[in-house]
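[scheduler] slot 2 assigned
[scheduler] job type: sequence-to-structure, two independent chains
[scheduler] chain ordering preserved from manifest
[runner] begin chain α
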Amino acid sequence: MIVHVPQPLASPSSQAPSTPVLLLSEGDCLVASGVSDTLAGPQDAIAALAAAFFARQRDQREAVLVGAFPFDSAHDAHLIAPQSLSRLPLWNLRAAAPAGGRGVRAMRSTPDANGYRARIATALDRMRNGELRKVVLSRRLSIEFTEPLDPLDVVTHLQLDRRVTTFCVPLHSDGGAPGRWLVGATPELLIAKRGSSIQSAPLAGSARRDSEPARDREAAEGLARSDKDRREHATVVEWIADRLQPYCRTLKVPATPEVASTATMWHLGTTINGELKDAATPSIELAAVLHPTPAVCGVPHGLATEAIADLEPFDRGFYGGAVGWSAANGDGRWMVAIRCAELAGSTAHLFAGAGIVSGSDPAAEFDETAAKFATLLNALGVDASAACREGGEP
């Protein structure tokens, strides 16, 4: 892996057009600069394409791929072989100016509040009448600003929460200036691999945090007791363990979830640890086997995928996908692409979803998506309460 002395980060507008940047942060910051090659392919082929790419490299110790998987596994992943890779402490990122000051021309929720609740009711009907056990339904909040957005400004605010992994991925640059950026602050680890050791840390079951300590503690305790949320979480953990088991010599799956937090949300979380039978198994192969988990899709997978296609009136793109890196030796780290937005010019498309299971309340699930929007809205300097308004109008 190439490691250089870090230089101050510049905004995209001051970079050379052919120099997109990827940032991944968890205790430190990984910066990929320049493009020596790109790799694209559907999920069922991406591990083989990556293996062929690494086999062509003269110095495999320095070979790495970084990028993103879309939610739809039939669509192409977008991976970059960077010209250089640097690590720097998070505090070396440029100082964050106070969020705010951006004018908002328009804001629209797709679907609106009533439409989202109606789609949840339809999903619950399907659960009563069939084999669908869980489906994650999302909504999109589109905001048109009066001035262009700087992705690194947004990332700089997102990384202030050290409990998440912040990311900034250029999408479809085609050798020129990237027209779209995927930015976000995800708390959910899809898969990490180092040597023969692997780890996955799924999250499912959520509650909004509160600024008042007693109410915040009550929200966490209520989530820990919630039968609905514990059932939803157990479904995700079981699914991930079943898919990792064939690869593992040992696999440790805690019986009881813990309550984890970000700046805006409480989550039920379980940390799964394993030892691979074959240490050469690449992280990108494991990521492709796991993605999309029931935490962003549902179970059974086929019925949940069909329900999402029927009930969501937009293409998720890279929301609910995965972001991360994989090295030639198979090591890597892939995060679930949630709490994220796609930025293009002066437009931001924010995404948030909720897991629907038997017993879900449509109004409460809508409120959960509103709470999840807060992470990006705060970083964009937009009043987070706007996500709760009917139709999302400012």
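[runner] end chain α
[runner] begin chain β
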Amino acid sequence: MAPSPRGRISVDLRGLRPALFELANARGVSPSDLVRTLLADALPQSDCPPASRISDSSSRPLVDRVRLSLRMSRDEARTLALAARASGVPLGAYVAGVTAGIPALTCASLRSEHLKALVASNSTMATLARNLARLTSLLSHGSVAEAAYYREMLDRVADEVRAHLAISSTTLADLRPRRLGTLEGHPTSDGT
């Protein structure tokens, strides 16, 4: 059986863990990236890809993200996981978002209301775009009589665009943190 292109093994570091993490941190890579690079350098080159191809170029320095453990009952953990899943975000982002006071995460019905309103508004904008394209086509071909059908739509364009922008801005506002702190690199509520 051929090995998986992304194989995993567990190794007992026997006291080497602190040194591994210190060296990885000093190089600005994850411990996994450091181990892959060291192994690639130690193994015969014909049997493995170059270290440059093994290292994950998208990895971030360890200071960007930390692991957080929470102690809670099974029911609380299940409720938290279900709430994150219902919100459509990873568990860590959900906890950070609730902590940051993002209204769309703290009120489940608010999120679904926003999504329904935004979908309906986007549909209206898509119809408007198609109608404007059709109107432009008619006018460019000199079909003024047929273009008159779109007159009423033109009278409402500004109102429909304003309504869409109001819905969009409300939704975006309710997705922004209300408290100090950041969520996945987004600015804080004080603009920093």
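[runner] end chain β
[qc] chain β: Residues 36 and 54 are 7 Å apart (CA to CA).
[scheduler] slot 2 released
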